[in-house]
Amino acid sequence: MITPESARRRFALVSFLMWLPAALMIPSMVLLMSERGLGLAEVGLVMTVYSVVTLSLELPTGGLSDVIGRRNVLIASAAIMAVGLLTLAFATTIWLFVLSAALKGVARALSSGPAEAWYVDTLHAARGSSADLKPGLSLGASMGSLSLGLGVLVGGFAPLAVPGGTIEPLAVPPLLAAVAAVGQLVVTVFAMPEPPHGRRGLGGVLREVPLTIVSGVRLAFGGSLLRRLTLFAVADGIALVSVELLTPGRLASLAGGTELGATAYALVAALGFFGSSAGSALAPWAARVLGGGRRGAVASVAVVALAIAALSATAGLAGAAGMVSAAGAYVVMFAGLAVAGLFFQEMTHNAVTSAQRTTVTSISSLALQAGGGLANLLLGAMAAAYGVSVAWALSAGVVTLSLLLFVRMPKPPAPATAEQDSVRMVG
Predict the structure, then answer these.
(1) How far is Cα 81 from Cα 172, in angstroms, rounded to an integer?
(2) What is the DSSP string of 224-252?
(3) How far apart are CA 73 and CA 194, in angstroms?
(4) Do 212 and 66 touch, CB atoms closer than 8 A?
(5) Would you indicate the residue range of the signal peptide (predicted)?
C-alpha cells in the first residue's frame, strides 16, 4: 500500500504535469490560428467547439472514472491531449483546428477529477475516512497553479528563442505542450498504481456509467450541503470569467496598445497563477488560524469579493497606478479563490463516498463552467455598454451574495468508513 506521504508527493507531481500542457499553449494558441488564416469568427468557432465538447462530456467521463478507475482515465486523457496538441501544431485548415479543439475538450473532460479522487481514496484507504485532506489537496492545487504560471511564461517566450527558418515560432509552444502531455502519461502509468477493478465488458461499463451519473447528480442536488457548494461553484465561475474576460482589455488600454497589452496580461496572468499557488500552500495555515473550514471559506470568499470590488473601484486610474492596482487585485483574487477552493474540496470529499467522488467533482466543475458561460454572455455586453467598472461591480456583488450560502450551513454527514472506501477501490 502507498504511504500517505508518497501519495501526496505523487498527487503533487501529477497535478503539476496535468496543467502544464494547457499552460504552454495558452499564449500562442489564438495567434497561431490567426497566422494560419483563421478570422476572429472562425477562432471563436474553434473555441466554442472546445467548450461544448468539454461541457458535454464532463459528467459521462466523471462517471467513467468511477467505474473503470482514476488511473486509466488519466492515461487516456494524457494520450488524447498529446494527439490534440500535435494536431494544433501542424493544423492548416479550420477543420483541423476544430479537430484539435475537440480532442483537447475530450482530454480536459477526462482529466476533471480523477487525480484528486485517486489521492482522496488512497489517503482514506491508508488512514481512514477521517484523515485530514487539506495538506495533500493544498499541495496539489499549489503545484497546479505553479505549473500554470511557469507554463504561461515559457509558452510566451519560447517563440522568441527559436532560430529563424528552423520551425514556425508559434508552433513551438504546442509542440512543447505535446511533449509535456507524454511526460504526464508516463508518470501516471508508473506513479499512480490503483487496485485493479473487476473485469468488465463494454456493455457493463456503458450500463454502469449512467447509473453512477444519476446517483452523483441526486447526491449533489439532493442534500443541502452539496447543493450549496454546487451553487457556489457557479459564483466562482462568474468571478473567474469576469477577470479573465475583462482584464486583457483593461491592461491593453493602460499599456497603450494590444501587443503591449498582451505582454502585460501574460505577466499579470503568471502572477495570478503564482498567487493562486501561494494561496493553496497557505490554506492549511489559514484553516488553523481561522478555526475551521466554514470560517475559512467565508473569510477567503470575502477577500475575493473585495479584490473584484477593488478592480471596479480603480477602473478609472491610468498609467502605472492603474496597472499596479489591476495586477494587485488580480493576484489577491486568485489567492483568495485558491484558499476557498481547498475548503470547498475538503467539504465536498467529506460528504461523498468513493463511488460518486469523481462524478460529484465533475458536477462542481460543470457548475463552475456554467457560471463562466453566463458571465461570458452578460458581463461582456455590460462592459461594452456601461464600462468595465460596472461589470466588475456586478461580479463582486454576486460573490458577496454567495456568502449567504454559508448561513446555517449543515455539517457534512458522517463519512463512509475506510473499509467501505477500500472495498470500492478494489471494485
Answers:
(1) 16
(2) HHHHHHHHHHHHHHHHHHHHHHHHHHHHH
(3) 12
(4) yes
(5) none
Cβ atoms of residues 128 and 417 within 8 Å: yes
DSSP 339-399: HHHHHHHHHHHHTS-GGGHHHHHHHHHHHHHHHHHHHHHHHHHHHHHH-HHHHHHHHHHHH
Which among 137, 110, 372, 346 has a CA at the least distance from the CA of 244? 372
Contact (Cβ atoms closer than 8 angstroms) between residue 339 and residue 280: yes
**Block residue for cell numbers 482514476:** 70
In terms of residues, how long is the chain?
427
Does residue 168 sit in helix, strand or coil? coil
Q: Which three cell numbers stand for residue 63?
A: 462517471
Closest by CA to 270, choosing from 179, 174, 156, 172, is: 156
Lowest mean pLDDT across 159-163, 237-241, 320-324: 159-163
Q: What is the amino acid identity at position 413?
A: P
Neighbours of 320 (CB within 10 A): 9
State the Cα–Cα distance between residues 85 and 98, nearest whole angstrom. 12
CA gap 115, 185 in Å, rounded: 12
- Nearest-angstrom CA–CA distance, 287 and 358: 24
Could you tell me which of 104, 111, 69 has the C-alpha nearest to residue 87? 104
Q: Which three cell numbers stand for residue 245?
A: 474576460
Question: For 102-154, what is each residue's pLDDT tens digit?
Answer: 999 999 988 877 888 888 888 887 777 777 777 788 788 888 888 988 888 88
Q: Compute the distance between CA of residue 292 and CA of residue 57 in angstroms, rounded to an integer.
A: 34
Rg (CA), the chain: 21
C-alpha cell at 226: 452539496
Supply the DSSP string of 187-201, one letter for each residue: HHHHH---PPPPP--
Contact 355, 66 (CB under 8 A): yes
Here the cell at position 7 is: 501519495
In angstroms, rounded to a whole number, what is the distance separating the alpha carbons of residues 122 and 144?
A: 19
What b/e readout covers 22-42, taking b as 16+ CB neighbours within 10 angstroms? bbbbbbbbbebbeebebeeee
What's the N-to-C CA distance of the chain in angstroms?
A: 16
The residues, ordered by sequence, that sit 6+ positions from 120 with a Cβ below 8 Å of its Cβ are 133, 137, 349, 354, 357
Which of 162, 115, 112, 147 minimizes the C-alpha distance to 11?
115
What are 50-84's pLDDT values in tens digits? 878 887 887 677 667 767 778 888 999 999 999 99
Question: What nine digits make up the cell of 241?
Answer: 470569467
Report the CATH fold assignment for 4-191+201-426: Growth Hormone; Chain: A; (1.20.1250)
